User: What shape does this take?
Amino acid sequence: MPYVDGFVVAVPKGKLEAYQDLARIAGPVWMENGALSYVECVGDDVPYGKLTSFPRAVHAKDDEVVIFSWITYESRESRDAIVAKVMEDPRLTEDQWKSVFDGKRMIYGGFQSFLEL
Assistant: This one.
């Protein structure tokens, strides 16, 4: 079963195209380094819940859209090695990401799969 990294971020609507351009660079970098899949999704039906929701989780503002993404790997060990390589790749820099979203409001984590149909 694959290991999965999941991410949720809020991106200003005016920077959505820049985020998508950056994701089109990042995806191939992850894949070239061994990721099994790389998926980026723009929120389409993500209501602001009364208690919890994707927008609440990232403190999304009215002028922001929620992005949900995930990357899959063969294992936690392969993920750790791949991420280390990606972080060293000159095609991606922390400043690029900072220019399109507030990383302090990003939610992320690694998950071990237990069911896939």
Strands lie at 3-12, 37-42, 64-73, 107-112. Residues 57 and 107 are 8 Å apart (CA to CA). The first strand starts at residue 3 and ends at 12.
